Amino acid sequence: MIFMNKKEDQKEETNIVMDTEPAQATISEDELKKLKDNIIDLENKLKYSQAELINYRKRKDEETANLLKYANQDLILELIQTVDNFERAIKLDDTNLNDELSKFLAGFKLIYSHLTETLKKFGVEEIPTVGNIFNPNIHEAMMVINDKTKPNEQIIECLLKGYTLKGKVIRAAKVIVNKLD
User: Which of 41, 101, 134, 158 is the most exposed place for a label (fewest CB within 10 A)?
Assistant: First the structure.
């Protein structure tokens, strides 16, 4: 049996003294102003970041909408070339409706009209040309003539039709323009 005396027990016990009074922090007015300025700066950065995120989302939504809106643009451009070929073939038509060529052209005209109506359903519109004033945003001047009987900048002839897809020019009209000196 081991005996311990009171002195040893007291040595083993440790008393933790806790300070119950709160520590008083002393901050100078300069430090307080710096902290307030820092808070204001961080709040401004947060607002800027939030606004930037909102703008990013709007921009991405707009890009996605445009991508979907004009997704078939390449296909339509290829179909427009086919429409051009049909128009060239139809121009070969003559007044003799009994020959073989006229019978073929009658079929071409049906296909052409169906194709142009289908393109219109998808938002394709022909750019107006002859008789209108030249607009460099939708027309491309291939030639310039000087005819004093016609107004300046008037389109005289359309060499190749232009088209818009839902308001966006996908092919400018190639035209001959009257230019007075």
Answer: 41
Residues 6+ apart with CB under 8 A from 164: 124, 125, 127, 138, 170
Q: What is the pTM of this model?
A: 0.63
Angle of helix 100-121 versus helix 73-90 axis, rounded to 10: 150
Residue 180 lies in a domain: yes
For 161-178, the pLDDT digits (tens) are 999 999 899 999 999 999
Q: Specify the long-range contacts of residues 150-159, CB closer than 8 Å, at least 24 apart.
A: 150/178, 151/178, 152/178, 152/179, 152/180, 153/177, 153/178, 153/179, 154/178, 155/129, 155/130, 155/131, 156/130, 157/130, 158/129, 158/130
Beta pairing partners, 70: none
Please report, for the domain that includes residue 160, its CATH number.
Answer: 2.30.22.10
Paired residues of 174 in beta bridges: 140, 160
Is residue 17 a part of any domain in this protein?
A: no
Domain range enclosing 179? 124-181
Tell me what the pLDDT averaged over the chain comes to.
84
In a domain, residue 4? The reply is no
